[in-house]
Design goal:
The structure is a single chain. Mean pLDDT is 82; it is low at 1-5 and 426-443. Helix 1 packs across helix 5, helix 1 packs across helix 6 and helix 6 runs antiparallel to helix 7 (129-148). The two termini are 40 Å apart. With 443 residues, the chain is of the alpha/beta class. The protein has helices at 9-22, 24-33, 42-56, 63-72, 80-88, 96-124, 129-148, 157-171, 183-188, 209-221, 236-248, 252-256, 264-276, 292-302, 325-343, 374-378, 436-442; strands at residues 198-203, 227-231, 282-285, 306-310, 346-352, 381-389, 395-404, 410-415, 417-418, 423-424. The chain has two domains: 9-148, DNAb Helicase, Chain A (Orthogonal Bundle); 171-442, Rossmann fold, CATH 3.40.50.300. Strand 4, helix 15 (325-343) and strand 5 form a beta-alpha-beta unit. The strands form two sheets. An eight-stranded mixed sheet has the order 3-2-4-5-1-6-7-8, sandwiched between helices. Strands 9-10 form a two-stranded antiparallel sheet. The radius of gyration is 27 Å and the shape is elongated.
Length: 443
């Protein structure tokens, strides 16, 4: 269900302060885009000032800490009920940027009305018209500059250089990257994806996109990175069965047949694995009704390092504008790109390709990304995958990096794919044909 964000101005003030007490991302965004005088309620201004002071000192910020500092200030205006109201006024802290923008917008309108009122009173008092207009123009320029760059610091090149060098040092640590688990891709991406990146994986139906995404998730789970998998196509159980195949080397056909087709040792493997990995940082959601607002809520709730969405064309838009399909996809792409940038999560987004008529086995191309050119535009990178017919009736898995803003492109490269176990690797690193049991040791 979509979360209501069309709140009244006073409700937005409460929702913003409440969000800042619940979420570090909301706290950071609110302090960067709103100022104390933007709040109409004096109690709201007091709470914002306390939050600002605590953050400036490097202290934690939450409801209990703010309550303690406000009460200890001894100004005689402590209002415990107001603080509780903040906690109850947050539909979702994932929309803190919406509340902040509304609070700031309303404050600018109030100030504009005040400037116009002052100018009108000056004219009524028969003051010099030229002086009144000059003052009015100066105040408007100040307000416009403030609106365009609320709390924006002057650009400091030396500071920017220092930050860039620090980022290079951080990225030298392999833990800063989210690998794909496929050698040629990890090499091309200098170790894998980085926080805040949006990577699209495109392919025709049935060409291994879901299995590949699950392999990337498995690779990162093994490194302790929390993964959120939003599945609009497969049910939760079917997806986890594939995960079992990848982890335990049990072919999917056996799992599909139930315990009747599972040897006792496989049943024991499953039981042991489930018992010992119940706390694995892996979240699977198969709610097909989730729109962008619901996706944002899920990210806020689970705080993953990586999010996988399978697949783009099945997600319904929630924009108010005309919902032609390309518009819905465009809105969703821009929303996901903003979500990755704002929260710092890496997003792996699966997308269908449009199959040209009359071509029984077309080659995946960027322009075939289905429904909108904005898919390519918003993505940091686009990986295209294909299961290609090979000799003996077998199918060979190949991939290419068709777009990569910050790394190498890659021409079509064969990648080892153990279909019964949904496992991937790089074909050129292997000698001969590997059976499933051997692939377990090699991938």
């Amino acid at each position: 269900m979509a979360v209501k964000t069309e709140l009244a101005p006073d409700q937005c003030e409460l929702a913003l302060l409440g969000s800042m007490l619940l979420s570090k991302e909301a706290l950071k965004y609110g302090l960067a885009h709103v100022k104390e005088t933007d709040f109409t309620d004096p109690r709201g201004r007091t709470v914002f000032q306390i939050i600002e002071d605590l953050n400036g000192k490097g202290s934690d910020v939450d409801l209990a800490i703010v309550s303690h500092h406000w009460e200890a200030s001894g100004d005689g205006k402590f209002d415990h009920d107001f603080l509780l109201k903040l906690d109850d006024s947050v539909p979702t802290s994932a929309h803190a940027h919406v509340y902040a923008e509304r609070v700031r917008h309303t404050a600018i309108l109030r100030e504009f009305q005040a400037i116009c009122g002052d100018a009108s009173r000056d004219f009524d008092s028969r003051a010099d018209a030229r002086e009144v207009l000059e003052n009015f123009s100066a105040e408007l320029r100040r307000l416009v500059e403030e609106a365009e760059g609320t709390k924006q610091e002057r650009f400091d090149l030396a500071k920017a250089f220092a930050s860039a060098l620090e980022l290079i040092e951080e990225q030298a640590d392999p833990k800063a990257h989210y690998p794909f688990g496929v050698t040629v891709l990890d090499k091309a991406f200098s170790g894998g994806m980085l926080p805040g990146e949006l990577v699209v994986v495109g392919g025709f139906p049935g060409h291994g996109k879901t299995s590949f995404a699950l392999w990337v998730a498995r690779t990162n789970l093994a490194l302790g990175h929390k993964c959120l998998f939003l599945s609009y196509e497969m049910r939760e159980g079917a997806l986890i069965h594939r995960f079992f195949s990848q982890e335990l080397g049990i072919p999917a056909s056996r799992l599909r047949g139930g315990n009747g087709k599972l040897p006792e040792d496989d049943q024991e493997k499953l039981k042991t694995f489930c018992e010992s990995n119940a706390e694995l940082p892996f979240v699977v959601i198969d709610d097909v009704s989730l729109r962008l607002s619901g996706i944002e809520n899920a990210v806020e709730m689970y705080r993953p390092k990586l999010m996988f969405l399978d697949y783009l064309q099945l997600v319904r838009g929630d924009s108010k504008r005309s919902q032609r399909r390309y518009e819905a996809v465009e809105d969703l792409m821009h929303g996901l790109a903003r979500l990755a940038h704002r929260t710092g999560i890496a997003i792996v987004l699966l997308s269908q390709l449009r199959k040209p008529e009359g071509d029984s086995e077309p080659i995946p191309r960027l322009h075939l990304l289905k429904d909108s050119s904005s898919i390519e535009q918003a993505a940091n990178a686009v990986i295209l995958v294909q299961l290609e017919s090979a000799e003996g009736g077998e199918r060979q898995f190949k991939l290419t990096i068709a777009k990569n803003r910050s790394g190498e492109l890659l021409y079509w490269t064969p990648v080892f794919f153990d279909a019964p176990l949904f496992r991937f690797g790089t074909a050129e690193t292997r000698e001969g044909v590997l059976h499933s049991s051997e692939a377990t040791k090699s991938v």
